[in-house]
Amino acid sequence: MKNVTDSFVFLGHWPSAGSFGFNTDILATNLINLSVVLGVLIFFGKGVCVSDLLDNRKQRILNTIRNSEELRAKAIEQLEKARARLKKVEMEADQFRVNGYSEIEREKMNLINSTYKTLEQLENYKNETINFEQEKAINQVRQRVFQQALQGALGTLNSCLNNELHLRTINANLGMFGAMNEITD
């Protein structure tokens, strides 16, 4: 405990002018470093709403999945109806076995094939929708993060450039542009 209070007493007795040196007091330097890091994080982290974007996207994807599951349930219901119809057709087939067994068998296969095709199409649609929404969410998050990083970099760059350095940078870029024009001509 004495070291902590000594570090604060030490901070209060800095010389007003004179030498520059290293502070070997670990607690005091850690407090300064932590305060600088927290300040930077709070300053640059104000507008970041990536979690809100992800939550919204997650809700949309869950809604799409829910809708797809409802469509799947309807398709299963249709399959059950088709099976019931198939049973009915099979009972009629027993009655008309002599006259039209091949025709009934053909209808049965067509009904089963069309139902399975419908189920496959619905499953493919669900998977395509999920993949599309995931890609869309990822692209939006990437774009948002890129924009925020670019804004942060421009802000940092503008705050670090003084007039003289800014003019030298502009002149150097103009010189490179002029050299590129001479090469292309």
List the helices and strands and how they pair.
Layout: H1 2-12, H2 26-44, H3 50-95, H4 97-160, H5 163-184
Helix pairs in contact: 3-4
**How would you classify the helix and strand content by structural class?**
mainly alpha
Intertermini distance: 74 Å
Classify the helix fraction into a percent range. over 70%
How many strands?
0
Estimated radius of gyration: 36 Å
Mean pLDDT: 79
- Compute the number of helices: 5
Q: Categorize the overall geometry.
A: elongated
How much strand?
A: under 5%
Strand count, sense and barrel status of the largest sheet are: none
Written as H for each helix and E for each strand, in order along the chain, the element string is HHHHH
Poorly predicted spans: 7-13
Describe what you observe in this structure:
There is one protein chain. With 185 residues, the protein is mainly α. The chain has a domain at 31-156. Helix content is 88%, strand content 0%. The protein has 5 helices and no strands. Helix 3 (50-95) runs antiparallel to helix 4. The longest helix has 64 residues, at 97-160. Residues 7-13 have low confidence and may be disordered.
In short:
The protein has helices at 2-12, 26-44, 50-95, 97-160, 163-184. It is mainly α.
Task: Pick out its properties.
185 residues; mainly alpha; 5 helices; elongated
